[in-house]
Amino acid sequence: MGKNVPLIVLLILLLISSFISFKFYSDSQFLLRENRELKEKSAKFEEERSVLTKKNRNLSEKLEGIERRNKEIQEELAQIEKERDTLREKYVELLKEKQNLEKKLSKRAALVVEKEEKIEKEKVPSYLEDIIKERAELKIQVKELKDKLLEMSQKLSQLSGENKELSLKIDDLENKKEEIGKNLRYKERIIQLISKDLVNEKEKNKDMQEQLSRLREENAQLKQELVMLNKEKVELTQKLRQIAEEKEKLEGKVSQVEKVLKEKVLLFSQLKEELSSALEGKKKVEVKLPPIVVSPKEAEKKAIEKEEITPISERRLEGTILAVNTKERFAIIDLGENNGVEKGMKFSVIRDNRNIATIEVIETRREVSAADIKEVKSGYSLQEGDQVISQ
User: Fold this and answer.
1) Is the pTM of this model over 0.70?
2) What domains appear along the chain, each with residue ranges and CATH number?
3) Terminus-to-terminus CA distance in the chain, angstroms?
4) Using one digit for the tens of pLDDT, what is the confidence trace for 237-270?
């Protein structure tokens, strides 16, 4: 069994190599057939192109021959028309001569008749011979004139026949001319179509080349744009991360600010309620606010702040009015114990750099204070946002 293994391997290798060689041979034969077919097609195209060029050349030569023949026919037509004009002129002249001869014959016949009548009336025998002679001469002349008239009529009939033949020839020539013109126009259309086809093929090739160049340029531009867009994408992702971080920070700050605002709003509402309830009975009663619980650390800090605060007489405090109760005549300002405000302090109310009123503090808190409205100038009333300055 061990001895048969290498033989089996050799057989497998031979089969594989024979299969590969057969595949290679079949592929090469297929490629050769395709190459042969392409060569045959190219040869056919060349033959067709040569046939078309020959046809084009033959058509151009035929056109030139037809144009020459057309010129010759036109020249022949011009000559025939000239001959026809000359024959018409001769015909007119002969008609005029015929009319003149007829007039002369009529005159001669009238003279003969007159002379015969005179002879019969006079009946002079001495003149008979002369009259007979003249009559004979006149008859001879009349006969000659009649002969001439016959000849002229024969010539006229011949000329009319020739004229008819010429008109027939002219009609035939015109028909031939129309046929030649039709052939010329037909062949010109064929030549124009062939030339248009050739021009269209050239233009199509040019358009294809231009489109390829445009596509290549657009491909290059798109690649550049993709690179730029990837860069922008990276930058935008980084900016988005930064914005998300800033957003989280701002949300935290906003939540803190909202908490502080809620506390101040609650405090402000409590102050308003207590002030309004306190001032219902008396106008000048102190407002009792809820006691403020201060931790020992805050008390120490407050004591230190009070010690460090400079006396009121040495510095001026500035703030704004937060709310006004015109009915009870009091106002809330944004200055409190932290700013050094104490009961009994007076403030001037300033608007547009003018002193319009005076208020006196009646109750204080850490950040706000309540004050009675003492004096107000005529034409003015306190408003939220007015500036206050300690006196």
Assistant:
1) no
2) 39-211 (1.10.287), 279-299+312-390 (2.40.10.340)
3) 123
4) 788 788 778 888 888 777 777 777 777 777 777 7
